[in-house]
Amino acid sequence: MTKRLDMDYEVIVIGAGHAGIEAALAASRMGHETLLVTMSLEDVARMPCNPAIGGLAKGQLVREIDALGGEMALAIDETGIQFRMLNKAKGPAVWSPRAQADKQAYHRRMMAALEDQEHLTLMEGEATDIAATDEAVKGVVIGDDTLIHCNKIICCLGTFPNGVMHIGEESFPGGREGQPPSCRLADRIASLGIERGRLKTGTPARLARESIDFSRCETQPGDDVPAPFSFRTRRIDRPQAPCHITYTNERTHAAIRENLDRSPLFAGRIKGIGPRYCPSIEDKVVRFADRERHQIFLEPEGLESEEIYVNGLSTSLPRDVQERMIRTIPGLEESRIVRYGYAIEYDYYPPHQILPTLESRVVRGLYFAGQVNGTSGYEEAAAQGIVAGINAALSLEGRPAFTLGRHQAYIGVLVDDLVTKEIDEPYRMFTSSAEHRLVLRQDNADERLFRYGVRYGLLPRDLWGGTIGRRKSVARARRTLEGLSLSADTLPGSADAAGKGAQRGKIGAMDLLKRPEVRLRDLEAQIPPGTLDLDDRGRGALEISAKYEGYIARQRKFIERMIDLERMRIPEDFSYDIGALSAEARIKLAKFRPVTLGQASRISGVRSSDISILMIFLGRRRQEAGERDRAASEPLNSETDAWRDRGVSRETRPLRPRHGMS
Amino acid sequence: MDRDTIVALGTPAGESGIAVVRVSGPAAVDIVDRMAEGTRSAASHALVLRVLRDGTGAPIDEALVAVMRAPASYTGEDLVELSCHGGMQVVSDLLEEIVARGARLAGRGEFTKRAFLNGKLDLAEAEAVADLIAAETKLQRRVALEQLEGSLSRRVGECEKALLDELALVEVSIDFGEEDVPVRAAEETRRTARETRERIARLLESELPGARLRRGIRVTIVGPRNAGKSSLYNALLGEERAIVSPVPGTTRDRLCERIHIDGFTCWLEDTAGIAETGCEIETRGIDLGRAAAGRADLVLFTIDGSAEIDAGTVAENRRIDGAKVLLVINKSDLVARLAAEDIIAKLGVSEAISVSALTGAGLEELRRRIFSRTVELDAGALRRERIAVSARQADALREADAALERVEAIAGGSGAAELMSFELRAAADAFGRITGRSVSEDVLDAIFEKFCIGK
After folding, report:
1. Final residue of a domain: which of B353, B379, B405?
2. Distance of CA B378 to CAs A160, B209, B222, B243, Å?
3. Measured between beta carbons, which residues in chain B are less than 8 angstroms from residue A86?
4. Which member of A63, A134, A169, B394 has the lowest number of beta carbons within 10 Å of its beta carbon?
5. pLDDT score of A650
């Protein structure tokens, strides 16, 4: 007999990892009574793998989560112990912030945010069942018999669904180290008619800090001036800790090779597919046999923590082999393993079954975010969490859904990839996945996304005002520079330029700034102080706009070219039973059920001719349905269309229906 | 996708009483409004008489203007029809003015294509088009399969692979920049770009014959004054287009008309006769003629067989690439001053043909010669390369080449990986349009160009 809890919630979030936290905070901040259920309050916001937030492409995601009003950036700014801007040697489009986290401090910081949040309740317990019909969800069962009613459920289960851990010849059920898996809920989700698959990931050993000889390793310090993740953080004053670098060698590789038969990966006991971009050390040694060494980063798990994370040495080899191989590495000869590396297999629910809002197509009102969608990474999870949280809230309010385009955000790319690609290995964000990378930069995430954070009440309105203000002063400063001519003789690289017969004397200041070797501060040395009236971020923005000028314009052109396809919405009940479509396209389209023609075009196996055919039939359908179908032909979410403000007028979109057909 | 405004002449080209110019697209009404005040406020589907003016306010023509607002128009977009006086000058001024104001000349079948995309055609037509697309795609695939062993697809494929490999190497250094991966040196990327550009250049060489077959051969008549060039021109056209007179220098302009020889399109061009005169207009005409000869695929160097060959004529003949000269000795109805062999020797050409524009003698042989010379030319080029790229493929190749040129510039300058990647991607996308890897509307465009569907 199931007990009913007195309290009803509008939203229940299952799982308090990085996805669950952002989902719960977004929903509750939008004013909806939200319950966050976790198997262990001790492990809220836990980082079971590397002690770091951000990194290439992931740093952009964190900046975007922040620009939407999420918590991750603020939390890492307050608890990070080493900040670095990656790819600084390359152009600003591919700079990414990364920080080492103090795991325990990060957990405490997130707990505080959750506990202080209005409309949000935390609960410790295991969610075991979902009460649902095809049309709606009714509630979540906690433990054996407590049903809590709700209207929306967001599943952020991480690696817990039917998790099985492997260390050497041993395998045992587990969600992560020291915790049981979630099996009843995982099976229940499958019984709702949701297809599932199996993935694998892994983590390296942790070593005792005092047992490592750091003098035998290279030191990697953080940046002199740490750059915050959050647009709301003014400055980071916390003490910074270094990381260290060492390398494997032939002896390490020999130890691994000799024991490959004891590896669950190579012995075939692990069936789930692991990430190619983050292979275990045994994988690396086998696949790149000619490499003499592999780089290892030693990363502290916290300022006070005695544990050191051995980045680059992910493994599921037996414990004795882990010990043997680690002790072949310079600096680690005497090291002591505190926790052993392991591999974990878990269920995921292939994301062709979700909508771009992250709501299940199969069970309405049920949302999925994080590893359950086949992704990997704290940042990827958090990004989905905030999208799911906002959409659950919007749906409760009957408001239009929130989706971001590929041209608007890495988050848009992430979600779009999930709903259009076969996800059969853990999905990680890369900058190269973002074809509009030059406009999706970490420095302009606020310009791209603050409006949504403000619109949904997740950010104070004045933040957006500040962004607009800065944009205006950058435009002003630009005009000032355009009217100035400066001497190029004293600038860097001017000797080379003169040697090549370049013109000497006065040159337009803006043209000078376009040169890769010229920095804004070089120009400012020649003009009265205060002429430009810009803060640091404004100065950065001006410089980027000069260096990328032309490229950004061309990128915008590409975007405009593709955007009409993105606007053409495919009705939910559209039948792909069209003889002219290729057989493969028919199967794939029926499987992914793209929401827009743009998405359809990105599904592998769908050819341009199929898109042309769809266009014609969509045009037909519009004509037949006339007024009735007009709403359905609107873009998925006209609200989220930043291009409206960029001079692309509605009148220049001939494929959009303007009126009912006469 | 089509978001711009297009313009085209809706009635057959050439002199006619009334010509209809159609403008379709979001800016159609605005563009015409700026040429004829009050268009914007005009009622839909009503004819009004308006004076159309150019940018300076000078009138171009008086025309009946009909505004058909979206979606109740043929294309489903805002459509303006201008019925103007049919003179070619008026029509070309009008088209030029509309293009200057932001429209673009429509491609073949583009109005119909827009009508389709905007759901303006009935179900049967829509299904017919869908089937055609499918069939066309199958055809393309079959052609592609047939070409698989041919050198075109192999070479294009090699270029595409080289670009994708290079892109991957550049991307690795961006996305794994912090890891222990080899950084791709800009110089390496530059080399790939340069080598690929060389391959593209070789591929593009084979476009020439292909393009010639499609657009037709340019045949230009040049020669000294009063050699009867315009008579020859008229004789080949079979009608009186050029004004002929015994007065030397009658033709001062270039004239150009299309003729068909065995189903093969020729653009026949008449030019002003070559002579040293003080007349500025005539000199200008001569310059134009020389330029035309430079562009021509075949030059009919025409002389009067009954007259002396002066030093100027010999010099003029030398100015032209000998490989494309066909010497025409005109006025074979008159007494020849020199034997054909002597003329050939004097001018240093390889062959000559005697004709009489007046009687028509030798004209059939001349047509055959024009045909064989040009077709031989193309067949030869095709044999050399054993490949032929279409205009569409050539466009894509040129786009890729331009992007790779920029890759070379970046690699030699800042070496910015993200910008090289951007350009490599643009180049790879251009190749993708040839190999069908990327989504584009090529197929649909091809359909509407090739098949007459709809109204």
Report:
1. B379
2. 69, 5, 23, 33
3. 177-178
4. A134
5. 31
Please tell me which residue of chain B has the smallest CA distance to A548.
Answer: B419
Domain range spanning residue B423?
125-206+388-436
Residue B367: CATH number of its domain: 3.40.50.300
Clarify whether residues B296 and B403 are in a common domain. Answer: no
Kindly give the residue spans of alpha helices, DSSP state H, lying in B149-185.
151-175
Considering only CB atoms, which chain A residues are within 8 Å of B413? 516
CB spacing of B175 vs A431 below 8 angstroms: yes
CB contact under 8 A, A87 and B133: no
What residue type is assigned to position A188 of the chain? R
pLDDT of residue B372: 77
B122, B143, B170 - which closes a domain = B122
Instruction: Quote the minimal CA–CA distance from A244 to chain B in Å.
Output: 14
B137 touches chain A (CB under 8 A): yes
d(CA A229, CA A382): 14
Q: How far apart are CA A502 and CA A367, in angstroms?
A: 60
One domain, residues B152 and B183: yes
- Which pLDDT score, from 0 to 100, does residue B391 have? 59
Q: Say if B40 falls within a structural domain.
A: yes
pLDDT at B437: 57
Question: Is B364 a member of any domain?
Answer: yes
Residues B356 and B222 reside in one and the same domain:
yes
Please, which residues have CB within 8 angstroms of residue A575's CB and are 6 or more apart in sequence? none
pTM of the model: 0.74
Spans in chain A with pLDDT lower than 70: 1-6, 490-504, 619-662
What pLDDT does B297 receive?
A: 83
Question: Given a cut of 60, is residue B14 above it in pLDDT?
Answer: no
ipTM: 0.82
Task: Let me know if A119 is exposed, middle or buried by CB neighbors in 10 A (0-12, 13-18, 19+).
Answer: middle
Residue B327 forms part of a structural domain: yes
Residues B118 and B163 in one domain: no
Kindly tell me the sign of the dihedral angle through the C-alpha atoms of A36, A39, A41, A47: negative
CB contact under 8 A, A661 and B26: no
Name the domain count of chain B. 3
B227 in the same domain as B194: no
Select from A90, A607, A661 the Cβ nearest to the Cβ of B417: A90
Report CB contact under 8 Å: B71, A87: no
- Closest alpha carbon to B10 in B1, B20, B18: B20
> Which range has the top average pLDDT, A469-478, B123-132, B268-277, B307-316?
A469-478
Same-domain pairing of B173 and B67: no
Per-residue pLDDT of B109-147, as tens digits, reads: 678 778 777 767 655 566 666 666 666 555 544 444 444
Answer yes or no: is B446 within a domain: no
**Does the beta-carbon distance from A551 to B436 stay under 8 Å?**
no
- Specify whether B72 is located in the same domain as B129: no
